[in-house]
Amino acid sequence: MKKLLLLTLVVSLCSFAMGADDQPKETKASDRVQSAADVLNEIESAPDSGIPNEILGSAECVAVVPSMLKGGFIVGAKYGRGLASCRTPKGWSAPAFFTVTGGSVGFQIGGQAVDLVMLIMNKDGMKHLLSSQFALGADASVAAGPVGRHAEGNTDWKMRAEVLTYSRARGVFAGVSLNGAVVKQDKDSTRDFYGHMVTSNAALTGEVEAPAAANAFLTTLAKWAQDAAK
């Protein structure tokens, strides 16, 4: 019976991935940009919960994974595609696309999709994001981020975390652990979005100009980051 359940889940996950791959890749990347903007808008528009202003206002980079697939109640399979942007002297950078695999997403159980937000809080954390692959908890220190409009009473995030992580599922937004998750450049999405290969380093440090298709995410990010810094 257990073997049958395991096989069923594996087949389901494979079918999901194959179904996604049947869609035009360029559309998927563009849709992900809009979805990431929607996630930020919905989280930050909540009156009493969200990312504390002190944290969002000082983050070096912001990464969003809309609708990360999760099937953790049997094998802990998790997979998501997202995009990130970092502060540059000219504003927020062109997006870098990445995948997230593995890791714990905390309070959620069962098969469902969750939205993930990762805030890179300092230059050390940013160095990892600029690379083509790194592991949270091993290469970069990671912690569940505090929730609310202010985090003045909680100074742990200032002292130790390179990356703060959040998750939203079924309307519930909370800080969660992503220990063990591997973040890797999504080369297929990168080529489809830019028309050629662009390294994460080039995108996130401002060497590459952001295409018009990135405006939805970058405009939204700039708005909330600016409001948080006031």
Rg (C-alpha, Å):
17 Å
Shape: globular
* Backbone structural class: alpha+beta
Number of strands: 10
Segments where pLDDT lies below 50 for 5+ residues?
Answer: 1-27, 72-77
Largest sheet: 10 strands, mixed
The average pLDDT is: 78
Number of helices in the DSSP assignment: 8
Q: How many separate domains make up the residues?
A: 1
Strand and helix order:
HHHEEEEEHEEHEEEHHH
Helix coverage percent of residues?
A: 25-40%
> How far apart are the first and last residues' alpha carbons, in Å?
57 Å
Strand residue content: 25-35%
Structure characteristics:
single chain; 230 residues; alpha+beta; disordered N terminus
SSE topology sketch:
Blueprint: H1 2-21, H2 25-45, H3 53-56, E1 61-71, E2 77-88, E3 91-92, E4 96-101, E5 111-120, H4 123-130, E6 133-135, E7 142-144, H5 156-159, E8 163-169, E9 172-175, E10 182-185, H6 187-194, H7 200-204, H8 215-229
Helix pairs in contact: 2-6, 2-8
Descriptive notes:
By secondary structure, the protein is of the alpha+beta class. Strands 1, 2, 3, 4, 5, 6, 7, 8, 9 and 10 form a 10-stranded mixed β-sheet that branches. Mean pLDDT is 78; it is low at 1-27 and 72-77. Helix content is 37%, strand content 27%. It has one domain. Strand 8 (163-169) and strand 9 form a beta hairpin. The chain is globular and about 40 Å long.
Short summary of the structure?
This protein has 230 residues and is α+β, with helices and mostly antiparallel strands. It has helices spanning 2-21, 25-45, 53-56, 123-130, 156-159, 187-194, 200-204, 215-229, and strands at residues 61-71, 77-88, 91-92, 96-101, 111-120, 133-135, 142-144, 163-169, 172-175, 182-185. The protein is globular and about 40 Å long.
